[in-house]
Recover the amino acids of this structure.
């Protein structure tokens, strides 16, 4: 029955140029990623399992013949899967540049689609030249391509495939060993072995080798699940906790006006006094909570100091900051997206170090200063240069991350000392509306807790604010678009994980694995011999039948091995 179904699907696709199937399959891909898991609704609990088969259509299109159609359809798939993941960026309305933002969404989707398309090209190479090794080599290449999205001024590592496992916490524990990269590797490998099994069934081959490979992969994933379940059941009755208050102030940035600063401070003061009743050890506001250049406005500066003095509780809040530019020109300023710790009569600043391309900074402006003259609304921030850790008392030392910074695994990992026992992420996801964006961002910050065995307190302007324990379990969370205070006892014990100690070691392992595989492919490519690769066999059959002019008669003398 399965064989008949697979053959009918294959015949239906090959009969005409049904490019829309690639678009449809790409549009369905994000169903395996947040927010489609139990966090959104219990009915979505099994959805993350789709990740282990979500790339099967991708492999199907990438390995088709003729080559030109395969490449076109594959890129359509890649572009669509990117567009459906990042559509929420279109909600950002920057000073009337709505059309520019929409163009930006398309360009981002084209660019991220190009990364996936590069994976498709690598897949075709591997299937052709290392058919027995590509089951492990291609997942390694996929990891390297995802890691490449963390590099350069255009870096945008949003919604990597491994984040699908956040919805299956026992499997997500594997990231404490490999980082999110290991989860991506496992997921891609699952897709490859399932594809190989389906292909063998469809071709009436002896699929025992494919069945064994699929069983071995499934056994490993089940083993990870059992280990993760055991890890989650470990006694965590450690008495070390800190009471942390998250103040989700919900300032509607779409209606900021001249009186927004006064309104923000009035609301913030009310929330501070209300939160202080529970006597937390720290109160955390979101990014952009105080709508001003805090250190340059003495009246507002003084207000925040009085809040901390009156409540005897440190306050951590997002605001803006400026300094005169190094050039010395009086009317030139460096503007920072900052966070401030207000405690003991002092205000200490941390300036955001990883800025969002185009939104906060123009890419490559350090190398090409003329780029900085391009005005896209708010893309004029200065990059911070000093990392920060804040010690509140003997019980609490936290590392701050502003918005976008939390999605970079190595940036989070390398800043953590053994004494640090809390991640603090402040963000303003209100720009993204009631889309998948806030859920995706929250899931990525949740993964940082698992990777590094450390609790997370996340304060978001419009949600999702949440407290997460060192195993990634959500202790408490808010919804979207509500003004509320979330005060919880957060564990302050620390689990020093393998990933914390050795960072992105798994990426280096994947580089070695990919290098060996590609080298083996080039060596084999130069050796004449029988065609045993399924993709080449199909191409050869089409060439002989006159259905594929790409290979022509020069391939007709090649020997096709019958299986």
């Amino acid at each position: 029955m399965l064989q008949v179904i697979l053959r009918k699907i294959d015949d239906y696709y090959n009969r005409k140029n049904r490019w829309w199937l690639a678009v449809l399959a790409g549009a369905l891909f994000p169903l395996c990623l947040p927010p489609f898991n139990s966090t959104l609704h219990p009915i979505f609990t099994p959805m993350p399992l789709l990740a282990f088969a979500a790339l099967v259509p991708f492999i199907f299109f990438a390995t088709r013949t003729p080559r030109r159609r395969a490449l076109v359809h594959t890129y359509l798939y890649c572009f669509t899967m990117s567009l459906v993941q990042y559509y929420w960026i279109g909600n950002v309305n920057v000073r009337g540049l709505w059309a520019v933002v929409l163009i930006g969404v398309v360009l981002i989707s084209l660019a991220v689609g190009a990364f996936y398309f590069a994976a498709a090209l690598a897949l075709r190479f591997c299937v052709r030249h290392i058919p027995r090794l590509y089951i492990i080599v291609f997942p390694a290449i996929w990891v390297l391509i995802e890691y490449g999205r963390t590099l350069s001024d255009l870096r945008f590592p949003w919604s990597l495939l491994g984040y699908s496992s956040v919805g299956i916490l026992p499997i997500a524990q594997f990231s404490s060993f490999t980082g999110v990269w290991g989860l991506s590797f496992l997921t891609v490998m699952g897709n490859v072995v399932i594809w190989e099994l389906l292909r063998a069934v469809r071709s009436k081959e002896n699929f025992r080798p494919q069945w064994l490979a699929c069983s071995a992969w499934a056994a490993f994933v089940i083993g990870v699940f059992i280990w993760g379940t055991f890890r989650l059941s470990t006694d965590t009755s450690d008495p070390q906790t800190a009471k942390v208050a998250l103040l989700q102030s919900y300032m509607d940035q779409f209606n900021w006006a001249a009186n927004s600063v006064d309104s923000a401070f009035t609301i913030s003061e009310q929330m501070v006094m209300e939160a202080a009743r529970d006597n937390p050890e720290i109160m955390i506001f979101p990014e952009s909570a105080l709508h001003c250049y805090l250190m340059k406005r003495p009246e507002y500066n003084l207000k925040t100091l009085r809040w901390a003095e009156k409540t005897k509780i440190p306050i951590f809040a997002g605001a803006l900051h400026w300094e005169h530019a190094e050039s010395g020109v009086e009317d030139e300023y460096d503007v920072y997206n900052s966070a401030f710790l207000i405690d003991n009569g002092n205000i200490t600043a941390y300036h955001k170090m990883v800025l969002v391309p185009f939104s906060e900074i123009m890419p490559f402006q350090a190398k090409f200063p003329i780029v900085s003259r391009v005005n896209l609304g708010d893309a004029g921030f200065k990059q911070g240069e000093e990392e920060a850790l804040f010690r509140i008392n003997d019980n609490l030392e936290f590392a701050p991350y502003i918005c976008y910074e939390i999605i970079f695994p190595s940036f989070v990992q390398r800043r953590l000392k053994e004494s640090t026992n809390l991640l603090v992420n402040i963000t303003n996801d209100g720009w993204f509306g009631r889309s998948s964006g806030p859920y995706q961002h929250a899931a990525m910050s949740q993964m940082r807790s698992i990777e590094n065995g450390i609790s997370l307190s996340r304060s978001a302007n419009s949600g999702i604010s949440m407290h997460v324990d060192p195993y990634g379990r959500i202790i408490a969370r808010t919804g979207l678009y509500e003004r509320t205070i979330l005060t919880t006892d957060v564990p302050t014990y620390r689990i020093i994980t393998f990933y914390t100690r050795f960072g992105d070691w798994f990426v280096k392992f994947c580089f070695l694995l990919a290098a060996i595989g590609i080298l083996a492919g080039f060596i084999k490519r130069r050796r004449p011999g029988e065609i045993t690769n399924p993709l080449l066999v199909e191409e050869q059959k089409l060439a002989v039948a006159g259905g594929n002019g790409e290979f022509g008669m020069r391939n007709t003398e090649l020997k096709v091995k019958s299986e």
